[in-house]
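Limitations
The structure tokens in this dataset are predictions for the assembled complex, not deposited experimental models. Users should treat interface geometry with appropriate caution, especially where small molecules or nucleic acid strands are included. An illustrative entry is reproduced here so readers can see what is and is not provided.
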Amino acid sequence: MKATLMHGRHDVRVESVPDATLKEPTDALVRVTRACICGSDLWPYNGGPNYAGQRMGHEAIGMVEAVGSEVRTLKKGDLVIMPFASSDGTCPFCREALPTACVSVHFMGNDEGYDGAQAEALRVPQADGTLYPIPVGEDDALMPSLLTLSDVMATGHHAAVVARVAPGRTAAVVGDGAVGLCGVIAARRLGAERIILLGRHADRIALAREFGATDVVSDRGEEAVARVMELTRGEGAHSVLECVGTGAATDTAIAIARPGGAVGRVGVPHYDAIPLAQPSFFKNVVVGGGPAPARAYIADLLPDMLEGRIQPGRVFDRTVGLDGVPDGYRAMNERESIKVMVKP
Amino acid sequence: MKATLMHGRHDVRVESVPDATLKEPTDALVRVTRACICGSDLWPYNGGPNYAGQRMGHEAIGMVEAVGSEVRTLKKGDLVIMPFASSDGTCPFCREALPTACVSVHFMGNDEGYDGAQAEALRVPQADGTLYPIPVGEDDALMPSLLTLSDVMATGHHAAVVARVAPGRTAAVVGDGAVGLCGVIAARRLGAERIILLGRHADRIALAREFGATDVVSDRGEEAVARVMELTRGEGAHSVLECVGTGAATDTAIAIARPGGAVGRVGVPHYDAIPLAQPSFFKNVVVGGGPAPARAYIADLLPDMLEGRIQPGRVFDRTVGLDGVPDGYRAMNERESIKVMVKP
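Predicted assembly:
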């Protein structure tokens, strides 16, 4: 079968690999019907840490082709959402709705020995706890939005939850990538009265406004902070969604947080320490976040999607086949595309 | 009158200064009946930032001697708790129970031009919003505990609140100073099932056990982390109260937090960035905290104190007159005393 492998900086290839197979009795074999490229895939693409021949892709919808002998809730022919992390569904963390801390978690396409989703098929461990069956056909028009439940919409939602977005509050979203755009959707869904997007790309800003952004700040650094303060009577935003993952973005996020407010970090942190330890302290700002417990959020978000109230699938502005994956990486990396869907 | 002034490293003096007087119509003039020395006073005592002749002391109970023309809720003869920060009681932050972010906040004994509480008397700004009248006599036996509402018990409580202590959870308290000990009281009061104290001083540990600590870890650094992990089935503590304020203590606090848990920082941070940005992210640990909104907590905590359910006043193991204040600093600095009460 074909799968996507990372070989080094700007060197991602679609290659023939041995067919995915069941290995454990709790596995499912899933034929990928939709996958996508994640902003976090661009870190190894740009030379960040990766292992030789890393299988890429951790977001998918697919058809169950076979299940191991211990799989109880799934069967061949089920269409399922595959969140980016596997989880057994039974450990204390899974029961507390934090499946990314599952005692047997694996990050698909990131953990060595696990398949990636930018492929024709993949082996999914802990299938009962990981996969979420959906009641639609494999070419349903909602497919792009449903696909975002595997990561990007769940991640935007997580940022908003951790940042404590609530009715009447002001939210600020740092970053206009696909996660930031989903953060705008999530902030609006949770009732934010005002949503300030910090971003610089015209196409993304336009989409953010359609999703509910009320204000846009395209400055950077201190100018961006000053502008958000102007917009918020000098107070800052109650809820800040950090959707980039750099130290500079985190610095901005903390600087624009209102006293008593919260920052939800969902950009994979490419910094060792959280800046502004003293300002965040004196403002009593909470900084939280991490990998979104996507599996646990699906049940919350799915109805709004099925009923058309949110359309995060609009972040996909390009669809490629497997052969188009390398060019999809290039396009996202050059900000030519917001997010690329893969239809193997 | 006599007041305490910081002149430099290990040079704190009680001197004659002009009598405190009303300056603004919203001021009260308070005769100090009890004050104390704070762990945070030891930072300037050990050479940390201070301004020449800084007035010291920010925790007090006292008698109102006079009020400005705009003071509405207080009168001469009222016995009041003075939280460490002044607040107007009417701004958006005060209304949201975050008086330390009040638009007209002043930190008593820290802000230049404001009196300190280790003195015979002091001017208190924004008296209506700041001072909390208490229904007891000035020599009531509960006075030590009531005095802790001005800062140290409120601070331990804040750490517990931010760290989301709740019934059945495991709390860990980093630091066995007076704040840490109050953190133990607060964690127990909020229902923690297990309370692990990280501390090394026999007298403080003994008191912590009386306050409700169920386990004590006296190792440091990686050994302390390993020991807490052993005690918590490898998971860590749901709630970590960081009651020291150093980077090393914060590092430990984050390292021992359970996935999905929370760290409440109340030690004034003597570090520029919060360590372990990646581990805290991948664990989805929230890091919050700051100056305790003491004024807003008094109504919650006072009944438990008046009815004897909590006795944070036991952290005071020495009482001095004003002349004894410099030796009180020395005793606290040398860990000869946990916390020193001042009876002018």
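Some entries come with short summary sentences. For this one: Chain B touches chain A at residues 92-93, 96, 98, 100-101, 162, 235, 250, 259-260, 262, 265, 268-269, 271-278, 280-291, 293 (CB under 8 Å).
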